[in-house]
Design brief:
With 504 residues, the chain is an alpha/beta fold. The protein has 16 helices and 25 strands. A hairpin with a 3-residue loop joins strand 23 and strand 24. Helix 2 crosses helix 3 and helix 2 packs across helix 6. Bound molecules: adenosine monophosphate.
C-alpha cells in the first residue's frame, strides 16, 4: 500500500527542481527540496516516537518550513493538527487535552507558557518560528531525508482541524486522506490549475482554505505559490505581474479595491480570482469586474466538508451565489425540522454528501450523530436555496436566523436591501432578545462616508420592500463590523454587544 495523499501530492514531482514556494524577500523551495525536507521531518518525528495515527499539533507562523512539516507529518503516517496562531495558551490547553498529540509544535516566544500544558497532556514540546528557527528544525536539519512513506489508505486520517466554534466548544473535524485528495483533484480540474500557474497565497495555513485548497491544489498541479506571511494589498499588487491566480477571503477583495495602485493594468493579465470562506457581497463582485474585467469565482466550503460548490470556470459566475455542487458532491436543501428535501427556490438547511465530507468529530460520537442524516448527508447548518438554474445561494448560518414574532427572518435578504442604499458600506442583521417578539430584528450598519446617513434614511426606503415583521426595530451605526481572521462577520459578538438594547 502507498501513502495515499502524500504520493498523490508529491510522488510524481519529488525530483523536480521547479520552485514550489517563493517567499517574497525570503527563501524559495523546490518540489525536490520540499520532498527532502518532508522526509527529514518524518525521520525526526519518528525518532521522537511519533507513530502512525499519532497527532502532531502545530501552532506555528506561516513559513515554507511549516508546509514541509504538514507534508512530513502525512508522510510519517501521522495526523496533522494545525491550530490558529491567535489561540492563547489557555485555549491551547483545551485542544491539546482533547486531541492528545504526541508532539506539540509551538512558537519559541510562547515556549515557557506552553511547556506545562504539553507536559500535563503528555505531549513533547518542540518549537518553530516563522524564520524556521527553533528546536524542531535543529532536529530536522540533521535527520535523514530518506524516509519511506508510511503506507496509508484512503480512509486513514490525514488531519484534524478544529472548527472555529463561535458557539460552544470547538470540535475536531477528522479528515481522511481521501477527503483531501478527492477535493484537490476536483478543484484542480474545475479551476483549470496547471504547472503554468503562479498562485498569490496570502491566507493563513491553519485553516482549510489556505492549507488544503491552496496548497494541495497547487502541489497537485505542479504550480508555484508566492507565499506571503499575511495579506497586505500593496505587496499583492507588487507581485501580481508574475502571478496568474489568487485565492482570497472577501476582505482581500474589498481591500484591493480601495488600493489606488490596484488597477486594470495590474489585474487584467491574471487568469483567475477565487473567493470563499465568507460571503462576497454582490456589490464587491460587480465593482471588481467593473475595475478589472474579471468576474470573481466564488466557492463554498467548510472545515468539515472541504469545498462543496463553486461557480463555473466557463459560464456565468453569478455574484451573490456560490455556484453549482462540485463533481462528485451531492448537495440538497432540506427542511431543518423534518429533513424533507425542498424544491427549487425554497430556503432550508444545506446538506452535503461525497468523498469530501469528513467522517466525524474527534471523540464526539454524539455530536457527529446529530449532524448526519440517516442516509449519510451532513447537515451543514448553513441556510440556503438552489435556484431553477442550479445555482446555490447561502442566506446565512442557521444559528444566525432571526425568529421574530414566530416568523423566520433571513438576515441576508435585509442586509442586501440595506447594502444597496446610498451611503451604506455594509451591514449585519441580527436577532436580539425582545420581550414581545422573542427576537427583535436589529441592523448594524457601516456608513461609506459619502453622506450623512440617519436611521430614517434606511428605515424609509426598506419599508416599501419588506414586510413589517422583517423590518429592523433598531438601526445601529458602527465604524466597522467585527470579523475573524477569515473575514467572517462575528454575529455572535454583535448579539452579545447589543443583547440588552430592547431591555428584554
Ligand atoms: P470554516 O469551517 O471556518 O471554513 O467556515 C465554514 C462556513 O463559512 C460555512 O459553513 C459558511 O457558513 C461560511 N462560508 C464559506 N464559504 C462561504 C461563501 N462563499 N459564502 C458564504 N458563506 C461561506
Amino acid at each position: 500500500m502507498s501513502n495515499h495523499l502524500y504520493d498523490l501530492l508529491i510522488g510524481a514531482r519529488s525530483d523536480e527542481d521547479k520552485t514550489f514556494i517563493d517567499v517574497p524577500g525570503g527563501r524559495t523551495i523546490s518540489f525536490r527540496q520540499l520532498h527532502a525536507e518532508a522526509g527529514q521531518v518524518a525521520s525526526a518525528l519518528a525518532a521522537m516516537g511519533v507513530e502512525p495515527g499519532d497527532r502532531v499539533a502545530v501552532q506555528a507562523e506561516k513559513s515554507a518550513e511549516a508546509v514541509a512539516l504538514y507534508l512530513g507529518v502525512v508522510r510519517a503516517g501521522a495526523i496533522f493538527l494545525p491550530l490558529n496562531t491567535a489561540y492563547t495558551p489557555s485555549e491551547i490547553d483545551y485542544f491539546v487535552g482533547n486531541a492528545r498529540p504526541r508532539v506539540f509544535v509551538g512558537d519559541p516566544s510562547k515556549a515557557e507558557a506552553l511547556r506545562p500544558i504539553a507536559e500535563k497532556h503528555g505531549a513533547r514540546l518542540e518549537t518553530l518560528a516563522g524564520d524556521g528557527s527553533g528546536t524542531l528544525w535543529q532536529a530536522v536539519g540533521t535527520a535523514s531525508p530518506d524516509f519511506a512513506a508510511v503506507p496509508r489508505g484512503e480512509d486513514d486520517l490525514a488531519a484534524i482541524l478544529y472548527t472555529s466554534g463561535t458557539t460552544g466548544r470547538s470540535k475536531g473535524a477528522m479528515l481522511s486522506h481521501r477527503n483531501l485528495s478527492s477535493n484537490a483533484e476536483v478543484l484542480k480540474d474545475y479551476w483549470r490549475f496547471t504547472a503554468d500557474d503562479v498562485l498569490l497565497h496570502a491566507l493563513p495555513i491553519y485553516h482549510s482554505h489556505g492549507l488544503f485548497v491552496a496548497i494541495n491544489v497547487s502541489l497537485l498541479a505542479g504550480a508555484t505559490m508566492i507565499f506571503f506571511a499575511k495579506f497586505e494589498a500593496e505587496a499583492m499588487v507588487r507581485e501580481m505581474p508574475r502571478a496568474t491566480t489568487m485565492m482570497g477571503v472577501p476582505t482581500f477583495y474589498t481591500r484591493l479595491l480601495s488600493t489606488p495602485s490596484f488597477t486594470r493594468e495590474v489585474a487584467g493579465p491574471m487568469r483567475l480570482f477565487i473567493s470563499g470562506s465568507a460571503p462576497l457581497l454582490a456589490e464587491t463582485h460587480k465593482q471588481f469586474s467593473d475595475l478589472t474585467g474579471h468576474a470573481i469565482l466564488e466557492r463554498y466550503g467548510m472545515t468539515e466538508t472541504n469545498m462543496n460548490s463553486s461557480n463555473p470556470y466557463d459560464g456565468d459566475r453569478r455574484g451573490g451565489t456560490v455556484g453549482f455542487p462540485l463533481p462528485g458532491v451531492e448537495l440538497r436543501v432540506a427542511s431543518p425540522d423534518t429533513g424533507e428535501v425542498l424544491g427549487a427556490g425554497e430556503i432550508g438547511v444545506i446538506e452535503v454528501k461525497g468523498p469530501n465530507v469528513f467522517s466525524g468529530y474527534w471523540q464526539m460520537p454524539e455530536k457527529t450523530a446529530e449532524e448526519f442524516r440517516a442516509d449519510g448527508f451532513f447537515i451543514t447548518g448553513d441556510l440556503g436555496k438552489i435556484d431553477e438554474d442550479g445555482y446555490v445561494t447561502i442566506v446565512g448560518r442557521g444559528k444566525d436566523l432571526v425568529i421574530s414574532g414566530g416568523f423566520n427572518v433571513y438576515p441576508k435578504e435585509i442586509e442586501e436591501k440595506i447594502d444597496d442604499l446610498p451611503g451604506v458600506l455594509e451591514s449585519a442583521v441580527i436577532g436580539v432578545p425582545h420581550a414581545d417578539f422573542g427576537e427583535g430584528v436589529t441592523a448594524v450598519v457601516v456608513r461609506d462616508g459619502s453622506r450623512d446617513l440617519t436611521e430614517d434614511d434606511i428605515a424609509g426606503p426598506i419599508r416599501e420592500s419588506l414586510a413589517a415583521f422583517k423590518r429592523p426595530k433598531k438601526i445601529i451605526f458602527v465604524d466597522e463590523l467585527p470579523r475573524n481572521t477569515m473575514g467572517k462577520v462575528q454575529k455572535n459578538v454583535l448579539r452579545d454587544t447589543y443583547r440588552d438594547i430592547y431591555g428584554a
